[in-house]
Design brief:
With 273 residues, the protein is an all-alpha fold. It folds into three domains: 3-100, Helix Hairpins (Orthogonal Bundle), CATH 1.10.287.1080; 145-220, Helix Hairpins (Orthogonal Bundle), CATH 1.10.287.1080; 225-271, no CATH class. It contains twelve helices and no strands. The protein is globular. The mean pLDDT is 92.
């Protein structure tokens, strides 16, 4: 697509959004939206795009990327009405930022050896640009907790606050699990006192943080690992449901031992595909 066609397409999309938000002739639902009310839509559309990207389905990628773009243009129109800046200013600002933070491409900066060097330079420029910002302050609070844990530990690690090797991180997981284990004997979620429950939540949080850090040291994110584990769980449980449906049964109709037997069968069957 030429620059002229791209610009025209973006202008036309902006005009569609403007029409939807017109107080007189627009859509009643769209007119009611605010910068805070649409956050859920933005998050949902982003996750749908992520699913399409992982599946590498071109039709879904085109559709879901369009939905995310629509949300960005929608934010631009709402911001224009609320703060006096719109999509043009958003584009100008991000363009300037990308040029500034890639001096090895757009400026006189020396070539960089690899992607890690690019990330290190990015953070150095970002911190210089925001001199009084704490190192971890820019990691968004709205990120999923495991993903945010990955980003926080990565950011701290680049500042030198990190374990030297993966074995040390694994040992930290055992340490945190040990502290959680101290709270488990006799634990009953129905009768446990609030103080003990809060302590258990704190210790489990430390375990999850340590596991997210371990995943980072292993070269992937805990969010990605858990997402894939969720998918395996859904597939295996679906296998159980299908097997029982053939007998006219549901999972709640059989014993725990039978469910475990079917679970092991599902693991084997799906791993062979």
């Amino acid at each position: 697509m030429s620059n002229a066609k791209l610009g025209e397409a973006l202008v036309q999309l902006d005009e569609v959004v403007a029409r939807l938000l017109d107080p007189e002739t627009g859509c009643p639902w769209d007119i009611k939206q605010t910068l805070t009310s649409i956050t859920g839509n933005i998050l949902e559309e982003t996750y749908e795009l992520m699913e399409a990207l992982k599946a590498e389905n071109p039709d879904d990628i085109r559709e879901e990327a369009g939905d995310v773009l629509f949300q960005t243009v929608f934010v631009g129109r709402l911001a224009l009405a609320r703060f006096g800046f719109g999509l043009t200013e958003v584009i100008d600002q991000v363009k300037a930022k990308m040029v500034l933070r890639h001096p090895h491409v757009f400026g006189d900066g020396a070539p960089l050896a690899d992607a890690q060097a690019v990330l290190d330079q990015w953070q150095a420029i970002k911190r210089k640009d925001k001199k009084h910002e704490r190192l971890l302050a820019s990691v968004p609070l709205a990120l999923p907790a495991l993903q945010r844990a990955h980003r926080l530990s990565d950011r701290a690690g680049r500042a030198g606050f990190d374990w030297p090797e993966v074995q040390s991180v694994r040992a930290k997981v055992d340490e945190e699990l040990g502290e959680l284990d101290e709270l488990l004997p006799g634990y009953d979620k129905k009768t446990v006192v609030p103080e003990r429950k809060e302590r258990a939540k704190e210790e489990l949080g430390d375990v999850l943080l340590a596991l997210a850090n371990l995943a980072r040291h292993l070269g992937f994110s805990a969010e990605e690992a858990l997402s894939e584990a969720n998918a395996r769980f859904v597939a295996r449980f679906g296998h159980i449901e299908d097997a029982l449906a053939g007998e006219g049964l549901k999972p709640e109709d059989v014993s725990a031992d039978r469910l475990e037997e079917l679970w092991q069968s599902a693991k084997k069957a799906l791993s062979e595909k």
